[in-house]
Structures are given as structure tokens and as C-alpha cells.
Amino acid sequence: MPRLQCLTMATSLILLLQALSLVSSTILSRADRITRLPGQPRVGFQQYSGYVTIDEKKQRALFYYLAEAETKPISKPLVLWLNGGPGCSSLGVGAFSENGPFRPKGSILVRNQHSWNQEANMLYLETPVGVGFSYANESSSYEGVNDKITAKDNLVFLQKWFLKFPQYLNRSLFITGESYAGHYVPQLAQLMIQYNKKHNLFNLKGIAIGNPVMEFATDFNSRAEYFWSHGLISDPTYKLFTSSCNYSRFLSEYHRGSVSSMCTKVLSQVGIETSRFIDKYDVTLDVCIPSVLSQSKVVSPQPQQVGETVDVCLEDETVNYLNRRDVQKALHARLVGTRKWTVCSDVLDYEVLDVEVPTINIVGSLVKAGVPVLVYSGDQDSVIPLTGSRTLVKRLAEELGLRTTVPYRVWFAGQQVGGWTQVYGNTLAFATVRGAAHEVPFSQPARALVLFKAFLGGRPLPEEF
Predict the structure, then answer these.
(1) From 341's CA, which of 118, 133, 330, 415 has a CA 20 to 30 Å away?
(2) Are strands 416-424 and 404-413 parallel, antiparallel or unpaired?
(3) Has residue 56 been placed in a domain?
(4) How confident is the model at residue 288 (pLDDT cuts 50, 70, 90)?
(5) What pLDDT is attached to residue 302?
(6) Which residues cross the membrane (predicted)?
(7) What range defines the domain where residue 268 resides?
(8) Predicted local distance difference test score (pLDDT) of residue 314
(9) Active site residue 179
(10) In this model, does residue 290 exceed pLDDT 70?
């Protein structure tokens, strides 16, 4: 047979296999398509949700929810969103409480007018296994879970998810998240870059992390100055909180089950002065925050006074909605080994000491690799205060020899100041969001959307209205 004919046949075979693969993928994604969520208003975009099995042997599966862009989804990027905890739901917190297209209200869903799927195809992942609807058939899979396991699982998820949705393979990909996602996001991005050296699968265009845990001591010890500068604690208590027992020492002792009498004394006084009627995740808010925002409370525990109870609101719309059987059926979701969907996992045993391992160095490696990084902070959050994040970003810029390209200045959303920003080189940026809490898109949705749009476009935040 002539050589040219052989090549032609080989090419035809490859094209046939590719076509069959595409048909197979289309069938897989169609099975995950959401016809309509209960109580949902009519929309013009597609939604998908379901499972990606990351370990066939142990039947470990991660649950995802995809809200495609409202308009022209083919031309818009793919954005992966990860919530923190560790062990809290990106579906319940991110999608249904922060930047997704809907928010539960009683028995129905209402449109979020500042949904991020106006600008991108939004992919929400409940990770690690044991969080939300994600599950494993063996309970041992929930034990000893750590950052390394989570990052690897998230990488495998994306690899297999692209088999379901090959149309997104060459699309610009951004990874975003908040709180403990200051660990999840950089660690996943690092693995993606390493994987790309051999396989070139991921078209990673940038990461954005909000109020992130990046360096244990700097992030948590900035809490004392934040409390003091906002009038939440007295001068003597501020002195104790920065000398006798700082917050990183308390957390370290707490996670090891041996809180010293000195730290107990200091934190007790801090608690008395700040008051249990002030929410540490938004110090200006004078109403309760729904428990869907409890991701923060996992990474930042509070010493409880004897007999104290915490009221996290009598009604939680998201928890009620996601525990409806008709909703779970519409989402193609299953409850395995548990009777109830929860915001933060009560079956996951996560290695809490991983919080002490810095990720700011990984952020630096991403910047050096040319991956744009945005660190943003809600300025009313005292859990991971803006002062710590700003210090870490500035220090990193100096270590990398990056010059300031956008001096510290205000940025605008509408006709109001949206916050402050500073940019180093063309790959590292810091921004605050004025009036925002730990969960920025929940507390300042309009300003968060302006921030998100500028990040995707690689543009500086608006300096005039």
C-alpha cells in the first residue's frame, strides 16, 4: 500500500477517534445538564452539575456545579471557584450565597444581579471529598486529608472534568477562591504548571484569592492591630495580645490541644472587649450572618465561655434549599454516608496543622512563572485582615524585584470608592474592597463584580467613575 495512502488512512482514523470521543463527552455532559432548579426563574444560560470520580478503586467522587456565562459562553473564560474552611462548600457558600446566579429565598430562587457568570463560565467544586455532596464509599477516605491530597484530587478532577466538557479545553482558565483557598488555589495552580511541562493541558491565565490564609503568623497576628485600630480592644489588651500571647500562638496551641493559661487569659479578655455581639468576619455589621458563612470559623476557632451558645441565625435559606429532595434530584446529587447536606463537613478529618505551612512562597513561584495573581481583601474582616495580606504582597514584590506600576490609590465602582489598590510589575496586584466582609461577593456584590471583571480583563481597577 502506498505510503501516502497509509498516512491518509491513519489521519482518518485519528479524526474518527476524536469524533467518537467528542460524541461520548457530549453524552456525559448532557447527563449532567440541569433542566431547571426548583423555584428557579427562567434564564437563558445552561447549568450542569454532577460527579467526577477521582478514584475508581475507593469510589471517591467530587461534586461540581457549572453555571455557564449568561451571554456568549463560547467566547468567555472558565473560572474555577473554591471555598475554604478547610472543608466548606463551594456550592452552598460560593454559588448560592456569594457570586453564583441565584440565591435561595424561602421556597424559590431569586436572581443575583451581580453574579459572576455575567463575565465567565463559573465552575464551583465541593472539595475535598467529604464536603457537601462530594463523597467516598469508605469513611477512611475522610481521615488524614491534607493540602497535598486536596491539591492532587483537584488536579485529577480538572483532568477528568475536561473529558466531560472538551469544549473548555483550550479556554482561558482562572482559579479563584477565598479564606483557606489561600492554600487550595496556589497549590492547585502549582501542580497545573508542573503538569503542563509534559502535557500542556491547562490554559491557566491567573489566580485571585480573597482574604486568603497565606502565611500563618503574619495573617493571624495582624488581628490584634486591626482590633485595636477599630476600637474593639483597649490599649492594655492590645499590649497583652501582642506580647503575652499573640493570635498565632493561641491557634498553634489550640490545634495541638494544649492552650496555655496565659493564652486563655488573653483571649478571654479579647473576647470580653470585642463582645460576642460583634461579628469578627464583618466588624461593622449589626445583624447576624447566616451560617453559610461559617467557613471562616473552621480556620479561626474562638475560645468558648462556659455555657455560651452561638446563634448563627434561626433560618438558613441555603441549607434548607439544598436539603430538599427535589433540589438534590435536579442537581443529580446524592447524600452518601450522611443524612444531611451541611455547609462545612462534619465527617472530614482535615490536617489542621497545614494552616501553619506558608503558601506565599508558592504565590511567588506563580508570579515568577508569569501567572497573574490578585490578592484582595474585604476591609471589614478581622479574621484575615487586609493589613496582613498587604504586608505579604508588598514583601513578596520586594523579594521578586517587582517595581510598582500602579501606585497605591483608590478605585471606583459606580460613583463610589470601591476600595484601594496597588500593582507590582504586570503580574502581582493587591486590592481592598471597601465595606466588604470576609466573604467579599456576599457583602459587597457590586464592587466584587467590578473587581472580578477587571481581573479577567487584565486591566487596572477603574480610577475614576
Answers:
(1) 118
(2) antiparallel
(3) no
(4) low
(5) 55
(6) none
(7) 218-299
(8) 39
(9) yes
(10) no
Task: Give the integer Cα–Cα distance in Å for 25 and 23.
Answer: 5
Q: What is the mean predicted confidence (pLDDT) over 380-400?
A: 97
Choosing from 89, 179, 291, 377, the catalytic residue is: 179
Of these residues, 381, 382, 389, 443, which one is catalytic?
381
Note whether residue 82 is domain-resident: no
151-177: average pLDDT: 97
pTM: 0.90
Whole-angstrom Cα distance, residue 438 to residue 462?
22
Per-residue pLDDT tens digits for 322-359: 999 999 999 999 999 888 999 999 999 999 999 999 99
Angle, helices 360-368/386-400, rounded to nearest 10 degrees = 40
The Cα–Cα gap between 151 and 156 comes to 9
Number of domains in the chain: 1
The number of residues in the chain equals: 465
Q: Does the pLDDT of residue 13 top 50, yes or no?
A: no
Mean pLDDT of the chain: 90
Whether residue 358 lies inside any domain: the answer is no
- Assigned domain for 224 exists: yes
Please name the residue that has the C-alpha cell 491518509: 8
Residue 23 pLDDT > 90: no
